[in-house]
Amino acid sequence: MLFNSFEFFLFLPVVFVLYWFVFQHKVRAQNLLILLASYFFYGWWSWKFMAMLMLSTALDYAYGFWVASPDRKKAKVFLWLSIINNLGILGVFKYYNFFQFNSSKDLNYSVFTVPQPCSTSHFLSAFLFTLSTGCPAVFLRLSSHDV
Predict the structure, then answer these.
(1) 31 within 8 A of 21, measured Cβ to Cβ
(2) The pLDDT of residue 140
(3) CB neighbours (10 Å) of residue 72?
(4) In whole angstroms, how far apart are CA 122 and each of 63, 86, 105, 118, 142?
(5) Cα-Cα end-to-end distance for the chain
(6) At what angle do helices 120-132 and 72-90 cross, to 10 degrees?
(7) What letter would DSSP give residue 145?
(8) Cα 134 to Cα 147: distance, rounded to the nearest angstrom
(9) Are 56 and 89 a contacting pair, CB within 8 Å?
(10) How far, in Å, CA of 81 to CA of 34, rounded?
(11) What is the C-alpha to C-alpha distance for residues 50 and 118, in angstroms, rounded to an integer?
(12) Tens-binned pLDDT, residue by residue, of the chain (147 aa)
């Protein structure tokens, strides 16, 4: 689904109305709607990468709890684990083909390619920005009970 497609023209108003009018004052429901709408939007492009996106989301959600821990040493360890995990995913999907192609030219062997999922950089950098600004603690508190 592209931002300038007819499908998106139908998708956006439905999500907007559900978020602001149907689930108004229900933060958990709003968060779940955004998560599921994001998965649907991303899966419309290619369902093949949904497992990677869901695994990354689950890991980042768990890391968010640990990063919000009052124990600063534990929080720092899990922040770095999250950064390494997210940059690892980005590295595999964004730069594997580049390094594989360049090394195969010199060594003369065949290679397989790894397609890059769309917006991988955006999803991962948005999460890292959220972690660096201290927002996870606020998000986790809001998501744990309806306001």
Answers:
(1) no
(2) 45
(3) 8
(4) 18, 11, 31, 9, 23
(5) 33
(6) 170
(7) S
(8) 20
(9) yes
(10) 25
(11) 11
(12) 777 888 889 999 999 999 898 888 888 888 889 889 988 988 888 788 888 888 888 888 888 888 888 888 888 888 888 888 888 888 887 777 777 766 656 555 555 555 555 555 555 666 656 655 655 444 444 444 433
Q: Is 119 left (phi over 0), alpha (psi -120 to 50) or beta?
A: left
Residue linked to tokens 């229900």: 26
pLDDT given at position 43:
85
Alpha carbon separation from 44 to 11, 58, 103 (Å, rounded): 11, 20, 34
What tokens does 122 get? 């955006």
Give the number of other CB atoms < 10 A from CB of residue 136: 24
Distance CA 129, CA 144 (A): 21
